[in-house]
Write a structure and sequence with these properties.
Blueprint: H1 3-12, H2 17-21, H3 25-37, H4 41-54, H5 59-74, H6 79-99, H7 104-119, H8 123-143, H9 148-163, H10 166-174, H11 186-199, H12 204-216, H13 220-232, H14 240-252
Helix pairs in contact: 3-4, 3-5, 4-5, 5-6, 5-7, 6-7, 7-8, 7-9, 8-9, 9-11, 9-12, 11-12, 12-13, 12-14, 13-14
Amino acid sequence: MPLRLALLALLALGAPAAAVSGQSPAERITAGDRAHEARDPDVALMHYEAALAADSANYEALWRASRDAADLGQAAPTAGRRVELYGLAEQYANRAVAANPDDAEGHFARARALGLKALTLGSRDRVRYAAEVREAALESLRLDPDHPGALHVMGVWNAEVMRLSRIERFFARNLLGGRVFGQASWNEAVRYMERAVEQDPERITHRLDLARIYMDVDSPDRAREQLQAVERLPITDFNDSTYKREAAELAERLP
């Protein structure tokens, strides 16, 4: 039986996983962090969930579980599995915010989970999530103005709104109640994403999305600089191999 299934079987029998293993929630979180750093989010998530089996309101385990569920969702082989994992990431993030509303990581985890979920939906359905994504990211930035992940979410949020057609944006603002759409701009998309790169220049996903935005605003030379940086950067995150492949494909489309 796979390790994750064995853990779920223990939980179904009512035995707290941390107690069965003899490890405390803190030890489980440390083990999860090691697995995350080794780019194994499946094992990391298992450890965080084991910590939560013993301490269901453990903030550190909750936002980390949301992070790794989202990572797994981005690499999921099917749309159904992707939606399932994004939903799990959203649940853990909501619990993290409830457990500790005064820390930036929980709000960022919520913004990211909601944003990824929204990207799986059609233009009309995305409107329902737009305000929540923006609100969660801005709250994270209120608590930590230099949080690179929250800066990234705001950059992508502005870009995704601007990528809608004028008719879609008008429909969203005036008929679906998405008035926050009127606050999006390409200038804000560039500003937020450039700040994300400035705060965490080694993170491949920041530079890839900045390159995409530069292409949207017809700045191919600046996009090329970011894609060349992606090529040089080492792989440190679970999805970095995918990001590098996407960057290479994007570079081929540059004029």
